[in-house]
Amino acid sequence: MSQFAINLLFVGASFALYIGIAIWARAGSTKDFYVAGGGVHPITNGMATAADWMSAASFISMAGLLASGGYANSTFLMGWTGGYVILAMLLAPYLRKFGKFTVPDFIGDRFYSNTARLVAVICLIVASVTYVIGQMTGAGVAFSRFLEVPNTAGIWIAAAIVFLYAVFGGMKGITYTQVAQYVVLIIAYTIPAVFIAMQLTGNPIPMFGMFSTHTESGLPLLQKLDEVVNALGFRDYTADVDNKLNMVLFTLSLMVGTAGLPHVIIRFFTVPRVADARWSAGWALVFIALLYLTAPAVGSMARLNLATTIYPEMAGQVEDYDAAAEEALIYEERPGWIRTWEETGLINFEDKNNDGRIQIYNDSNEEYAEIAESRGWEGNELTVNNDILVLANPEIANLPGWVIGLIAAGGIAAALSTAAGLLLAISSAISHDLIKTMINPKITEKGEMLAARISMAGAILVATYLGLNPPGFAAQTVALAFGIAGASLFPALMMGIFSKKMNNSGAVAGMLAGLACTLLYIFTYLGWLFIPGTNMLENTPDNWLFGISPLSFGAVGAMINFTVAFLVCKVTNEPPQEIQDLVESVRYPKGAGVAVDH
179, 277, 428, 468: which one has the fewest Cβ atoms less than 10 Å from its Cβ? Predict the structure, then answer.
């Protein structure tokens, strides 16, 4: 059986499973559509939450970021994981006790204002649409390779599949589909990692293999990787971060963004009791840890595999790395995986010095330029998209065809699971918070369900269009979304739970200030998103304000949000006493019983 047939078998079987579950669990009411009827078991919800949260950025892009940036990009791991702990400990149980369907629902009622609700809807849509772009981008990468179609066609296929099971199944269908997707993605992620760890180190546990001895050279794997990348003009893989301020702010931005993600928060409304929300969060951390403990090993091993594929003489014990670098791979003898990925456009080769060999090196390193020139090199010749490394890993390591098919299904599952959750959050905000609550309170349940499905279909079309023109690769785009959510929604949620005195004026002013400042900074340094050639300033650290990356500004936006909210609150009226009593009741520790549903 050909590799394409194997891929088609795995991907097709997973699609049939997802659509079958969606039909079986089709939403029959608005409660089914929004919160899966409110009766999901904590372990089931924990697994679905893990799939919802571990997006294409986690499955496809994070290991690629670690592979390309090494230790410096471990901020993604720290920020996303730390943020989930904040969400689990400080937000999820209290929001579940409040008993609402959506984040704007909570903000609108807590701050007794439809204006606050409307602003929350706007913040939610901006963050969620930005986030879903990363999922569509990741799905396009996976589809384009494994179904051997152009990247554009891959994104449209992903949109069609999400439409089939998300629009009709709602949260009920999505929940049980995400359980299946978690099983698929975690198996798909760990099995290739085990194979590769065994090949490179003899240790079957990837996280331990990363710190084990590289079999072929006899050196510790990370030391070997440092030597290889250093010989090609790159900084050591384990090198420290230069800009500590930016590192701290980026980590904080991912943390507060994670805690403010509406599509994850909404999952905690699907369990029957407040105590179940806490258990769901704990189980989700367990399921998430399985992938997050494996990702650093996958990234480091992928980087070493790629380098030693292009420079075979560097794989074993090397006395002269300069001589080994001269023996770069002849292009016509390139392995099949490079040929395959070239067809997708995600790997590109340009023979700049016409020697017929592939040179990968850091051509932006001025100190290394002299060495490269002495070898006759005239620039880096192979461009590899970061998002392909996890998907290409089994092929690089010559693993069996069924493993390649499995990781194809896993990568697609990761992208689709999060995309479905995000699209549900968007449609719920439009149908429930805008139409049902603000525009037409008398709408029938059937009409609200229709509005929810139409708004989700519209959101899919918008996300698909923007996914065709992303502002960066998957994890970068997701990081922007986290910054937006952290700057706008997270402070309002925290103040809504822990500050009885925070009023509607302060909350609205804070959300608007945090969102506006963050978007302005992003647009200034990254350009008006999705419109090529519109960067207002060059996107380099030398031009950033105090060296703060646009991806890190969400933490600053959150600080601005808190500051503005408290300043405005000081000069405006206190909340009504019943609102203060409501906040006190939500925080009171005896809330382990059944929450009130509205």
Answer: 468
